[in-house]
Amino acid sequence: MEKGAQGLNLKREVGIVGAVSFIAGTMMGSGIFISPQYVLATIGSPGASMIIWACSGLLAMLGGLCYAELGTVISESGGEYIYMLRTVGKGVAFMFVFSFVMVMRPASATGIALSCAEYVVAVFYDGCTPPQVLVKCVAAVTIIVLAIVNCLSVRLATAIQVGSMVVKVLALAVIVLGGVVMLFQGNTQNFDGSFEGTNVGVNSIGVAFYQCLWSYDGWNTLNYLTEELKHPEVNLPRAVVIAISLVTGLYLLVNVSYLTVMTPKELMSSSAVAVTWGNKVLGSWGWIMSVAAALSAFGSLNGTFFSGGRVCFVAAREGHMPDILSMAHVHRLTPSPALIFTTIVSLVVLIPGDFQSIVNFFSFTAWFFYAITLSGLLYLKIKKPELPRPYSVPIILPILVLIAAVFLVLAPIIDSPQIEYLYVTLFIFSGILVYIPIIHYKLCPGLLTRLTVLLQLFLEVAPVEKNL
Known about the structure:
By secondary structure, this protein is mainly α. The protein has helices at residues 16-27, 31-43, 46-73, 80-87, 90-122, 132-152, 154-184, 202-216, 232-261, 264-269, 273-281, 287-317, 336-350, 355-383, 396-415, 419-429, 431-440, 445-459, and strands at 2-4, 7-9, 327-329, 461-465. The protein has 18 helices and 4 strands. It has a 4-stranded mixed sheet with strand order 1-2-4-3. The radius of gyration is 22 Å and the shape is globular. The two termini are 13 Å apart.
């Protein structure tokens, strides 16, 4: 951020390398080390699971390109929130930010932190299941450490993101190379009858996509920090193409390597597939994969905090969250109040957290709002073609991604209704009950004002202006 005569402004410090690192670094987190066994177990066959992984990568690419157009037409930070605010209206935008701040981002951060902790403690509990209390304590420490880093410095957070991405790429490259060597040695028996036992039910396909798309989550990270990106009209679409292509290619090759080394049954029964792979291929050096997976999740969690704090920050700037959350530290120039708030909610969600249910809960809610956001892009294309568009995609792309989003939201409900999805839907719409009295009618303004002044002095923060 920059301090000017009129106040604080967001500073454009993220270049193309940082942009690619934030997308790829956030995507390549815990998912590729955790999700393959869940995808395979749900869809039932190696061949079908590979199709799911390829289609998920294609869907992430198409979604990222659509978001690149939105990010250049509406050049403000905040991602889905700011796009809904400008296209659908305040009520729906508040429903999103309420769900995002209270559930989606904390659930995402908690899921990544849990998987990071699983790999950290796996080194000390070889061959047995570690205590869940210990795993959650390690996850809590990880969340707190990264919250402090993001509060201290944007450059430090960016450096961690770039460094962790290098570690991730190297770790995945080791897995890929190990699989290639095993293939050349003739280990292809696990690919015989690749499609036998495929579950073709709508619910199975939908849940398999949920688990797989968790690994691709982060394809829209850059849209949350558009105001901090150098030359967004060029770097936003370019970073999307580079990062998602890299991630998709690595994911497919890594899955081939997993299936080369392990039988489908071994893969599905593994609690930490990368560690199982490492023990089989690297022998006594298998612990390296635990360290690499933990560092990978650590970097992904860093990107999640960086982007999640920006959404909370932008929502507060637009009047949909307490004013204190729209402020930045006057010396360190980071949106520390928003980051602190996100950290607190994440720690609360961590207490009852379960990885697989977190993934399904997060994916259902996320794709519900992705569908609304893409509807907004279609609205802008049809109703406001005169808007300047430094980057544009054919109208068929948002239509295809919108159809996929609707399928992902409705498929599990229609094929196998569960009461949990009703609870999720009710929670999403409960945002309206908060919006009407607190935001629309502005109840208790005096109390919030006094609290804002107190926290502003304590945290040494000041209001921030837009950087367009």
